[in-house]
Each structure stands twice: as structure tokens, then as C-alpha cells.
């Protein structure tokens, strides 16, 4: 019994060190200490043990793909560089002095669709995910590989509806596009379609799919940031976005819901939501009671000039971080989780 009592404090101390080791948040070329809210331009001595964006449970959020910008063709997993070489090959390298190993990824020689985000990769906790969007009825191919580029799961899904037309070529309606992902799931939705409203969520562990008959404006990640706890369903007719979770359903009015994008984080009974539109400036950050939808606080957000292209929400202890990416750069604002008061801003 005495031996067990002696080891308990050591275990607790290790846990505290682990949390504090992730307190440095990188924004542009600077670092913010989330404990002290002191910003520095000097790189931390042990960057691998202090980087919040790489080590915290929110790390997968910062790997989501922005299809309006340059989609990632290179990444790294377990110190091994992975690269999309061309339309049919991926390479990986065993560091530090190994040669690139070329892997065939398109044996059928299928043509890629001529849209942004037709061929990209990103890291997850147990490998690398490769997403290819082929032309026509070939659809998307989603492949998860391990550190040796060995395929662990693969799935294909359609992205275009083909309607037969008499004596003419089929009428094509592209509707499905990448939306976001976690370490285990990836979501595609019909953001740009006016006639088809559909979302498909893929489990990267086994390739199984979950179809949802609605377009989503956002996802609600579970507390551990791995699964999707719920979705923000877009209703253009009612001009609302419906927050749908097990045991909870409520809606928010939005006259421009077709352009609405929302990012959320969950803390106990709170749902913190950042809302913005892809057609104009303006961001709102509000904490809601997750079950009732009743607002708890409404943060005073400093607004930068320009249209946000992407927002990253995350939390550290009792603070909410909102990083905004837009043409011209990124900025960061930090808020008190209890009352929404702004405690730091790079603006």
C-alpha cells in the first residue's frame, strides 16, 4: 500500500508536465505562452514538446484543408516525409538519409477532376490520408496508409449526379466536396449544390460511410476531438442552421445561411461557436447552452479587414483561442471561457 501511495504523486506530476508542455501556441512567426499570455518571437528550445498545434487534442483541427488555398501535397508522419509526386504516385522517405520510395496510387490511370482539392494528403494519428477526386463517375478515392505507405483502409464515394438526357450527353451535377476531418473521420458535403443536399462521413479506420440527407455548415466534434458529436444542418428555405446532437436540437436564424460556415468547440455543457460567411467580413463568437441553445455569453470580437477564409477554435484550460486565416495573414484572439471576455489579441 505504501508503495502505491508513493508512486501516485509521480503519476500526477507527469500528467501536469504533459499538459504544461503544450502551452506554446504558434501564430505566424511568433509564439504565445498560453499560461502567461506573453508573446515572443524566439523559437522555444524544445519545439517538439511545447507545440500546442501538434501535441494537444486539437491538433487535427490545424491540418484541415482549405480548398480555396493551396492544398497540401506534402506532409510528415513519424519523421517520414510523404509527398504527392504526380497524378499516379506518392513517395515516402525513411530519414535521415534514405531515398524516396515511389508508390503507385492510380494504377488505372484515371484522370483527376479539374477542381481545387483534387489530390491532397494530410497526417492523422496513425498514418497519412490521401484523397483523390477523379473525373466523372469514378468519384472520390479516400485512402489511409501507415508509415510504410501500406494501405490500411480505402473507400470510394461519388461526387457528381449524372442525369440521362435523350439524344444528348448526361447532365452532370457536381455536388460533393471535402469539408473537414478529425483523426478518424472525414466529412464531405454538398456546399455548392442548390438541388442536392447530402453529407457523407467516412470512418478512416474501416472505410465505412455514414450518409446524412442534408448539407452541413459545420460539425460538432466530441469532447475528445475524434468523433463527430453532431452537425450544423443548413436549411436555405427556412433560413436557419439547425444544431443537431443526440438529445438536443435547436436552430439559429441566418438570412445568408447558404454562405455560412461555423466552427465549434465543446466544453462540458457549453457549445462555443464561431460563425462567419464566405461572402463578406464579420465574425461572431457565442457560447450556447449545448442542450437548450440559450446564449451564455457573446464575445466582443475585434474585426480585421477582409473576408475570413478559415477559423480555428481550440481551448487551453479556461481559455478559448480563435485563430483567423484570411488573405494577408492570420491573427489570434484569446477569450475567457467563463464569460467570453477577450484577454489577448494580435490585432
Walk me through what this model shows:
With 347 residues, this protein is mainly beta. Among the domains are: 21-55, no CATH class; 57-213, Lipocalin, CATH 2.40.128. It is built from 3 helices and 29 strands. A 4-stranded antiparallel β-sheet has the order 4-5-6-7, with no helix packed on it.
Can you give keywords for this protein?
4-stranded antiparallel sheet; 347 residues; mainly beta; globular; Lipocalin; 29 strands; 8% helix
Describe the structure concisely.
This protein has 347 residues and is mainly β. The chain is 8% helix and 48% strand.
Query: Count of DSSP helices?
Result: 3
**How many beta-strand runs?**
29
Determine the fraction of residues in helical runs and give it as a percent range: under 10%
Find the structural class using helix and strand composition.
mainly beta
Low-confidence stretches: 1-19
Shape: globular
Q: What kind of oligomer do you see?
A: single chain
Distance between the termini: 55 Å
What is the CATH topology descriptor of the domain at 57-213?
Lipocalin
Query: What number is the mean pLDDT?
Result: 88
Amino acid at each position: 500500500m505504501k508503495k502505491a501511495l508513493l508512486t501516485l504523486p509521480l503519476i500526477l506530476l507527469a500528467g501536469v508536465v504533459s499538459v504544461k508542455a503544450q502551452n506554446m501556441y504558434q501564430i505566424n512567426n511568433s509564439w504565445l505562452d498560453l499560461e502567461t499570455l506573453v508573446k515572443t518571437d524566439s523559437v522555444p528550445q524544445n519545439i517538439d514538446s511545447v507545440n500546442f498545434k501538434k501535441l494537444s487534442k486539437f491538433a487535427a483541427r490545424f491540418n484541415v484543408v482549405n480548398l480555396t488555398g493551396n492544398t497540401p501535397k506534402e506532409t510528415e508522419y513519424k519523421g517520414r516525409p510523404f509527398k504527392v509526386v504526380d497524378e499516379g504516385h506518392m513517395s515516402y522517405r525513411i530519414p535521415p538519409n534514405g531515398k524516396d520510395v515511389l508508390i503507385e496510387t492510380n494504377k488505372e490511370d484515371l484522370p483527376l477532376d479539374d477542381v481545387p482539392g483534387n489530390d491532397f494528403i494530410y497526417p492523422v494519428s496513425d498514418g497519412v490520408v490521401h484523397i483523390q477526386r477523379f473525373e466523372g463517375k469514378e468519384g472520390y478515392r479516400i485512402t489511409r496508409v501507415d508509415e510504410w505507405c501500406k494501405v490500411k483502409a480505402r473507400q470510394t464515394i461519388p461526387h457528381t449526379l449524372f442525369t440521362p438526357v435523350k439524344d444528348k450527353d448526361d447532365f452532370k451535377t457536381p455536388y460533393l466536396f471535402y469539408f473537414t476531418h478529425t483523426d478518424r473521420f472525414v466529412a464531405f458535403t454538398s456546399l455548392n449544390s442548390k438541388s442536392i443536399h447530402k453529407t457523407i462521413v467516412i470512418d478512416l479506420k474501416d472505410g465505412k460511410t455514414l450518409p446524412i440527407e442534408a448539407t452541413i455548415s459545420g460539425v460538432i466534434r466530441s469532447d475528445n476531438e475524434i468523433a463527430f458529436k453532431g452537425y450544423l444542418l443548413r436549411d436555405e428555405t427556412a433560413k436557419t442552421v439547425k444544431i443537431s446532437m443526440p438529445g438536443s436540437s435547436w436552430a439559429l436564424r441566418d438570412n445568408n445561411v447558404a454562405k455560412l460556415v461555423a466552427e465549434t468547440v465543446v466544453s462540458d455543457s457549453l457549445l462555443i461557436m464561431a460563425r462567419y460567411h464566405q461572402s463578406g467580413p464579420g465574425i461572431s463568437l457565442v457560447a450556447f447552452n449545448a442542450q437548450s441553445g440559450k446564449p451564455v455569453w457573446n464575445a466582443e470580437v475585434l474585426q480585421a479587414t477582409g473576408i475570413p477564409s478559415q477559423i480555428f477554435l481550440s481551448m487551453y484550460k479556461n481559455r478559448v483561442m480563435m485563430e483567423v486565416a484570411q488573405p494577408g495573414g492570420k491573427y489570434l484572439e484569446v477569450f475567457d471561457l467563463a464569460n467570453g471576455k477577450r484577454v489577448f489579441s494580435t490585432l
